[in-house]
Amino acid sequence: MAFKLATWNINSVRLRAGLVEDFLNSHQPDILCLQEIKCMNDQFPAKVFRKLGYEHQAVHGQKGYHGVATVSKRPIHEYHSTDYCLMGDTRHLCTRFELGGRPVDLHNFYVPAGGDEPDPAINPKFDHKLKFIEEMKGLKSNRDGVPGLLVGDLNIAPLESDVWSHKQLLKIVSHTPVETDGLKDVMAKGEWVDVVRRHFPEDQVLYSWWSYRAKDWKASNRGRRLDHVWSHAELADHLSNVEIFEDARGWEKASDHVPVIATFDLE
Fold it and tell me: What span, in angstroms and rounded, lies between the C-alpha atoms of 79 and 4?
């Protein structure tokens, strides 16, 4: 039996609840992780998800900014969040559920974007981002025998094939060497597997984000792969499919990110 996991930076869940509903109806993931929900917990459109079968919900919201939520068709046994950098931002949520008869931890992240200037000495947002990534290096893919999944908008495109122009973006936040090296270090120290790149060759160009600034995002196609799905090696060995649902970028009033879906044959 297949297990389908999706992640999507929705850029305001209340504004785009209808788009989420369309996606859930068409793709039917078992679990959906959302980032940038931009609402308090009591403002989250829980009823929309419940009527679609996502009765199990964990929400870590913030007024007007940030916020992450995980909605599931299967029971969430427990959940907690970590305040990375002690900034008070709602950027992480860990839920525990059962997969293949054993517990699994699912980390839902929204890493800081980092502003425009890639210099921590003059840009506190970039300094925050680098410190956030540094703290993530302590997160292991297997904790006390419980394998993990890590998804979300990590706001870094780590490979040359994850951006429309490696040379032109080397000094642009999200693809600077200090960021890409940092994210690769998070993966290596935690023994995480990038399951998107397990499915697609590393030299294949992949994007999950296209800027609102482009008049025609599809024609210019200047994208970046900022949204990720990682797992412990044990789970990665059961990966059967990955889809980056680009059509969602063309929807009316779309988010600038699109869903990334990973399917595992574990049950």
Answer: 20
- Please report how the helices 124-136 and 177-190 are oriented relative to each other, as an axis angle in degrees rounded to 10: 20
Cα separation, 58 vs 80, whole angstroms: 9
CA torsion through residues 244, 200, 202, 154, sign: positive
pLDDT of residue 214: 86
Rounded to a whole number, what is the largest CA-CA distance in the chain?
A: 51
Rounded to whole angstroms, the Cα distance separating 156 from 179 reads 7
Whole-prediction pTM = 0.97
* Strand-pair category, 142-143 with 146-153: antiparallel
CA distance 225 to 206: 6
Domains and CATH numbers, the chain: 2-265 (3.60.10.10)
SS3 of residue 252 by DSSP: coil
What is the distance between the alpha carbons of residues 13 and 69, in angstroms, rounded to a whole number? 10
Q: Give the 3-state secondary structure of residue 31.
A: strand
State pLDDT tens for residues 66-120.
999 999 999 999 999 999 999 999 999 999 999 988 999 999 999 999 999 999 9
Q: How many CB atoms lie within 10 A of CB 139?
A: 21
Residue 72 and residue 53 in contact, taking contact as beta carbons nearer than 8 Å: no
Q: Report pLDDT digits (tens) over 204-215.
A: 999 999 999 888
DSSP one-letter code for 172: S
CA neighbor of 58 nearest in space, from 38, 39, 36, 81: 81
Query: In Å, what is the CA distance from 128 to each residue of 8, 95, 134?
Result: 22, 25, 10
**Nearest-CA neighbor of 258 among 239, 245, 243?**
245
In which element (H, E) is residue 228 found?
Answer: strand 227-232
Residue 244 identity: I
